[in-house]
């Protein structure tokens, strides 16, 4: 870590940015337009409320109607496009980022998707065959079906399937011994229509492996949307998570497979469903080809179109088609979803892609199902889930979401069917600006510099692709292959990781501190691992790490205590180390956070206030984290300057009985000072301190509080609660600097940041110390006389308890010498 002085420009810029983060760092909201059914007044009301609450922007999503429209204005109609143009302009004028979804509902599709451009699937039919040779007629079952071929296999025992091509509408089956079955492979449209489509946007989901299908959608929808708005005002165009169910075929697949893999697809197609000695490799080749077609014919096509239109493309790249973590390679804005810091979520999938790409900002769809149903979610729910995303490496959240509701909607108004309604109809909305500001500070800080993730978790694509069918969701298959036990073992031991796939096999070896391999049988992967070991990487197998996480080495962030509920992520920013630490449990966790690369001192930055809230002159921090509480720790390699403030004057006049100003030596115990021995009240101390420059932080520290006896039994014999510490001040101190009130201290820790009141040159410190009234009680003779008089008249009905202890062991004044810690 580079040397850093307390006045480092890097640290100063971080302080300033954390205290006042830009709006761009604040959460955005998915803004649901139902119908589409929205007015100019509705647009302006929603966007104004978002801006006033401190949100960073809106992602406009066009979904199903919530009422029958009297004057129908369907999706992409002139009236709809005019409302969209107004929304983009009005939002941008408010300083909001405005994103558009490239279609209605999900996944992409609509009435412009013809049968030849719709998503397709491969289906299998099994027929038992009697002995002998047969001519079996085959014909499509549904319109648009295409019979690819037949495959003859025995019912018992292993055997290679025999391919039977379709000739003139039939299959010629040879005479083979034993019971047999015929497998018939047919491709057909999946039948999936766009989910939650707006009025006028209904239709089939497109074939994401077909570049012409994608271009057709972009011409029919994307161009119309962008022609209606000023694209320079847009933050991004957006594609939600891939949910093209059962889409495992495209008409060009046989030709593409042969060109890429070097052998024919159709003769071996039955190996997708029949195990043979070579079927694993064949299945891996088929599924890898589908990934490549998705990347080249969908992702690359949309990226190129977005570049031509001058907008960024934001993608949730996981699901079906089988997107890989490296499929994000050319996407401008990478996004994930899903909370859970101990396991592999799509948020971690996305942040891993961003890490390998060097992309500083990675977002996540958050609060998708938060505290369902709508309006149950609290700010604590939102912050708690957001912390999990941050622990996964995400640094920007897009909330799910803000349902537009017209002013004349009955009852509570319109809500989205899935969970959160995170708008100003919530009774807790007065707290929303503070919540969004809190998340903006954390998001901004965690996108500075570079993430520190020393563990590379390598998942061999060959082995996962071989086991992909029939689900076809590569992210879920990788998650199963890795297993929760491995990721939980790494994270709870203090190690963060980046997930990589076979894309690294094509890159030149470079040292990676630790590589953990989730089981592989691929010779090419083993060769890469050997090359990595040769350049200094330590290679470990997943099973041994699960059994003993200590094999990975010293954790980047050691968490002592916490019962596995406290996680951390680490960023390195121009020589400054920043750790985000979060308690994800519904109970308090006390932990010692020991960063491996910690500087001699640590600071805690409070995301609620944007200020430093605590400091340690140790390479570790002891934290008591409340349920779902998070902390930011910041370290530098330069210790703070500590000044001992020993020369004080006791000032006469305003406070106290002293007849003159006089110097005092600290510690100053009033009970040991003849002029103050029995005094109760307030006394003023003054001192001066000269500074070359106003510091960024100046903590006035009155000293530690030593343990003492707590509860005791007095005359009554009952335990009386007493704080079990001897504080450095007896009992309260009000601090003024250069005439400015800085605060009052009455409980440990007796520390206060006075930097805002300090200046270059000579500064005057004024401490008004107030005692208890214990001595006054002990010296009050009239109480005894009054009690005696009452007893004589009415008898003894009470006893003033423990009067003999009224001022026992009382110590007043400045009981230690304050210090000023400058940084």
TrEMBL record:
InterPro entries for this protein: Galactose-bd-like_sf, Ulvan_degrading_GH
Span-the-membrane segments of this chain are: none
Looking at the keywords, is Ubl conjugation present?
no
GO: which molecular function terms?
hydrolase activity
Q: Which Pfam families match?
A: Glyco_hydro_106
Q: Which residues form a coiled coil?
A: none
Q: Which Gene3D superfamilies match?
A: Galactose-binding domain-like
Q: Which domain of life is it from?
A: Bacteria
Q: Which UniProt keywords apply?
A: Hydrolase
What is the protein name stated in its UniProt record? Glycosyl hydrolase
Q: What organism does the record attribute this protein to? A: Propioniciclava soli
